[in-house]
Amino acid sequence: MSQKSLVKKAVETPMVNREITRNPEHFIQPAVDILESQEELKVIADVPGVNKEGLQIKVENGILTLEGKMDYTSRQDTLFREFAPVTFFRQFEISEAIDPEKIQADLKNGVLTVKLPKAEERKPRQIPITIS
Hints:
132 residues
């Protein structure tokens, strides 16, 4: 008597691999929280030492890219240094449910908040029920 397996085999899907061309010693991935509400997705990233001029945020081909360089000036009178300036780099694939024209970003005290509003037609809506 043969037994049927209750576990289904996982279907293999091809993965898209991007070539990483950045030196990992000088680029770090900032810690990120992603929050979702009915209206938007919110990406909150820690980018200490980065100012507005050193920050670049772009959306291209469905990829959100966050890139920032610390504003750091080495002083001649430094005797000992444990802090090394780094460049932040992080990418996220976003779906067509996001309206790229309405994306907003705010930088405050080393915390970057990127608001990704959902497209109107993709927002969940309550369907009214009528009695006939």
